Amino acid sequence: MTLPAPQIDHRRQTYRRVAQLGLLGLVLLAAASWMLGPAATPPPTEAGLSPLSWIATSTLHVLLEVSLGLTITLVLGVALGCMLQTRERSSSPLSGRWSIIGHSIPAFLIVALLRTRHGETLPFDLAIVVGVVNGLEAARWIRAEWIQFEMGSVAQAVRAVGFDAGHVLRLFGPTLARTLPLVAARTCSGIVGLQALLAFFHLNFGDLSTWGALLGETAARHEPLTAPLVFCLAAATGLPLAVQVVVEHLTVRERRPS
Amino acid sequence: MGQFLRRVLWLLPALVIVTVLGFWLISGASRAQGGHSLPTFINLRTEDVSTRAWKAAEQIALTNSGVARARLARLGGAALPYVLPRLDSLRPEGRERVALALLPVATRMGLLPAGSSLDGPRALSLWVDFWEEHFVDFRSARVKRIVERTVDQATELRTQELKRLDTFVLDEVMLELTRFMAQRSAPTDKQQRAVLALTNAAAHATGLTWTLREETSKGQARSVAARWLSWWAEARFEFTAPQGIERFLAPLLQTRYASWAREAARTRFGIGLDGNPILVTLKQRFPLTLLLCFCGCCGLLVGSLLASLLTRIRSANTTRRFTTAIWLVTPALLWAASRVIPIDRACLDCNRQVEPLALASACIACLVWSGMLALQQQLAVEGSRGLAPWDRHYRIMGVGPLRLSWLALRHSAGVAAARLLPNLAHILTASTVLEVAFELPGLGPYTLEAISHAQVNWLMAVTIATAAVFGLLQVLADTSQQSLTDVKPSFFRLRRPRL
């Protein structure tokens, strides 16, 4: 008996996902508007800038932070993930456990301790901490992908034909194309989210204008601004979702048998 | 059980490592505050009072350096037993320079009236005569007796006697203050007078201003004594000469980390920002944070089990997007709820009663948020992985989704336990946010305040407490996961389905 070939309808799936993403965006906007309804006209900030101008000026710093965080995450994640998967089986779980422990420390606490050490929050502390913490998480993801790939039919077939482990590793490379964008998106959102969190805790950067600093300033004056909050929410939460949708679209999926 | 105990025991060295890393991270703050000259972990240039004093004397004899004169004057009476007997080994003009450098000490000890000055030969003869008459007083047994007599009955004469020995009495004085701090009962008037005399003598010798007055309260006496002991934790290496094993371990003991560890063990992590002992504050605030974290863990467990059920009822990908939306909106709604709920924001004192409404709201918020987090994480995994083979077999046999979920409950619980540790960071962050938002007297607000004031003792205490709880949770999660995961539902427990 031959099994029927899996039926894939990419176009329908894409439409559905885009619709769901739009719905999510609407829900987010509705929630933000409900919360911040009275602040229909955002007042200028203490620096005399309107919120949108502030966002424009602070974007460069945020981009720099995101670039640094991304670099650290990807380099550390790939290096540590490859190290974990190429080590002996006995030591691999132990290394994996250390990466879990490292990832289980709240990033805001590390940034706060670094702030205590330096006396102030240094500009790139946040990017380094988020990069390292997400790098540890990425290593675990890569290790999980490797285990799944190694047990799959492709890797076993390649081994059976007689190719060495290096060849299997080269075949594993494209598999990371599904994981790394998600890791990158989570790093970007993590940095923006941590900025907002530090602003909520009044642990802002000194004179640096970041999105989180704008949130902190408005919160301190009890004058919530719709624009920066929505901007932060969209950057911190919408980005991973968007990337997830794209990755899911690019990944071939089989329909569940009814 | 043996493995569980072994892992629990391994937590102790892990905690030591955590304290080392935490102290390294935080130690910059104490360095920035100034006044610390010791290295952080290893001191390869250990010096006791004899070495310091003689080095300073030699430098004064050779170059009459101002820095060395100030150092010798600071060492004071503690340096005399190591300098005066060896004056003969210096050249004549060097002796006079050293004797002149010690004149501020003579003024402090009451040998000279304030403001008077002597020339070199007279200063030298003053010190030589003093040492011939009073060298017996500079013995630890003699000092111990004087301090004990002062504690027994603090008179003006005995206080003067203490002052005449200058910094040489500091070791015994601090020992007595330690005994005073160790007692749990409220200090008596006699003890209050003794602390007054001892701290006055110490302040006179060192020039520090942590003194008491006659009319000060008894609680303030403990506070002043605590400040002196905190200062002495590092300064003792400057004024004393370690003996025996302490001398051998000096490279490790004469460090800031060792000083902190000794002080933490002795004073229960020191005094906090509000003047209370840190361990007491930790005991007061930790249960609330623990309750919130417990709610978060329960939320994770419930969310994972719910995800297992939903996966078997509906498509995982369909459900996940809605739960993701709810999970993302939940914090915003909770923040709004914290604004709307009428909470008494008048006081933030940790001794006040926690408002039940605020506490209940925070617990529910933590539960819901972590549950949604687990739900969407678990659904993401289920959506990408699909159902297990045995799950499909059951479906083919006609088992319904509810029955299937019940059969897979144990397996799902194991997965939930495995998911606990990576999400602890999220739970702790959520509990801190909720404590700040609902103004609950948990660890979060106090920790943020400690960060602002660079309160090393509190941060270290919180780091250790958090690491211990995380470690225990990890061991528990691993143990429960091992006993839950590798079990698949048995076919024999299944009733024959109606086909």
Describe the SSE topology:
The complex is a heterodimer of chains A (258) and B (499).
Chain A: H1 10-35, H2 51-86, H3 92-103, H4 107-118, H5 125-151, H6 153-161, H7 165-172, H8 176-200, H9 211-220, H10 226-250
Chain B: H1 2-32, H2 49-63, H3 66-75, H4 80-83, H5 92-101, H6 103-109, H7 120-134, H8 140-152, H9 156-164, H10 170-182, H11 189-206, H12 218-239, H13 245-248, H14 250-253, H15 256-267, H16 278-313, H17 316-340, H18 356-385, H19 389-396, H20 401-407, H21 409-420, H22 424-437, H23 443-452, H24 456-485
Give a quick rundown of the structure:
The complex is a heterodimer of chains A (258) and B (499). Chain A has 258 residues and is mostly helical. Chain A contains 10 helices and no strands.
Give the tags.
heterodimer, A: 258 residues, mainly alpha, 10 helices, B: 499 residues
Structure commentary:
The complex is a heterodimer of chains A (258) and B (499). Chain A contains 10 helices and no strands. Chain A has helices at residues 10-35, 51-86, 92-103, 107-118, 125-151, 153-161, 165-172, 176-200, 211-220, 226-250. Mean pLDDT of chain A is 69; it is low at 37-42 and 254-258. Chain B is built from 24 helices and no strands. The radius of gyration of chain B is 33 Å and the shape is elongated. Chains A and B meet through helix 1, helix 3, helix 4, helix 5 and helix 10 of A and helix 1, helix 17, helix 22, helix 23 and helix 24 of B.
